[in-house]
Amino acid sequence: MSDGKTVGIVLVSHSAAVAASVAELAQGLAGAGGTVPVAPAGGTEGGGLGTSAELIAAAAASVDRGAGVAVLTDLGSAVLTVKALLAEGDELPEPTRLVDAPFVEGAVAAVVTASTGADLAAVEAAAVEAYTYRKV
C-alpha cells in the first residue's frame, strides 16, 4: 500500500483565505501533523478573487512527494483551470488527478487517508465518498 511516499493535496479556491483555511482545517482534523503535504492555491497572483494556473502549478509542485497529487476545487473556473493544466500535460506532476469531491469534507477525507500512506486512488476514493456524508 505505501512505499514511503505520500500523496500531496492541493486545494484550489477562488479565495486565498478559503483555500488556506480549508487546508488548515483538514490538517488539524486529520491530526496529520504536517505528515501530509497540503498546499492552498487560492485567488489570483494579485490577491483578488479568481483562480491562477501559475499558483495551482506551483502548489502542485510543492506537495509532490512522488506518490501523486490530488487536486480538489471549489467552483466552476477552478475546475476549468485545473482541467486546462492537466490537458497541457507538462504543468503538473505525474500523476495528478482532479478529484470530484466536496471541497471541505473531501479535503478532510483526502488528508486523513493520505496520512495512512494510502495511494492516489484510495485518497481520491475517500474524497469522493465524502459526497455521501449526511448531516441530518
Describe this structure in words.
By secondary structure, this protein is an alpha/beta fold. Helix content is 45%, strand content 15%. Helix 3 links the parallel strand 3 and strand 4 (96-99). Helix 1 crosses helix 4 and helix 4 runs antiparallel to helix 5 (120-129). The N and C termini lie far apart (34 Å). The relative contact order is 0.22.
Query: Element order, helices and strands?
Result: EHEHEHEHH
* Number of strand segments: 4
Query: What would the average pLDDT be, to the nearest integer?
Result: 94
Report the radius of gyration as a whole number of Å.
13 Å
Number of helices: 5
Overall 3D shape: globular
Low-confidence stretches: none
**Helicity level:** 40-55%
Quaternary status of these chains?
single chain
Amino-to-carboxy terminus distance: 34 Å
Largest sheet: 4 strands, parallel
Strand order of the largest sheet: 2-1-3-4
The proportion of strand residues reads 5-15%
Structural class: alpha/beta
